[in-house]
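To the wet lab folks,

You asked to see what we're planning to order before we commit. Fair enough. Below is the target structure as tokens, and below that is the sequence we designed to fit it. If anything looks off to you, flag it before the synthesis order goes out.
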């Protein structure tokens, strides 16, 4: 049976989308990954680009409102920004709640190469966190 995981942030445009993609890639058949936002927007094209570079395709993912998941049980809920951690709705049943406060790459400013460098940094941190968490649970896919 797959463990359902909900990954939350504010816009559901970068951090939670990347984490969802990595959980699907690294977690294999052990996890059912979902992501949502408290104030969703659209999936950021730079997030799609840097994930493609890492071998993970998130181009078909869409930004979703957390209300789409209300009433569902998620044994694991991961927030990737402080705003989502504070504004996360209550989901039924017991859940492991993890908070990974990550920089929002969508707020990066500067030249294009400076922006993409921030996306790479955040992507790599998310990959490390997802791999570490799966390794702790002994469920990482090789």
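Sequence we intend to order:
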């Amino acid at each position: 049976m797959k463990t359902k995981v909900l990954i939350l942030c504010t816009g559901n445009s970068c951090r939670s989308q990347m984490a969802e993609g990595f959980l699907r890639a690294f977690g294999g058949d052990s996890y059912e990954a979902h992501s949502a936002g408290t104030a969703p927007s659209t999936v950021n094209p730079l997030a799609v680009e840097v994930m493609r570079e890492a071998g993970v395709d998130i181009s078909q993912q869409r930004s979703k409102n957390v209300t789409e998941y209300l009433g569902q049980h998620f044994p694991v809920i991961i927030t990737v920004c402080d705003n989502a951690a504070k504004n996360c709705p209550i989901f039924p049943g017991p859940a492991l709640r993890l908070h990974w406060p990550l920089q929002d790459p969508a707020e990066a400013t500067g030249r294009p190469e400076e922006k993409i460098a921030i996306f790479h940094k955040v992507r790599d941190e998310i990959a490390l966190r997802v791999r570490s968490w799966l390794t702790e649970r002994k469920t990482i896919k090789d």
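Structural context that might help your review: Helices lie at 15-27, 45-53, 82-87, 112-136. The mean pLDDT is 91.

Thanks,
Computational group
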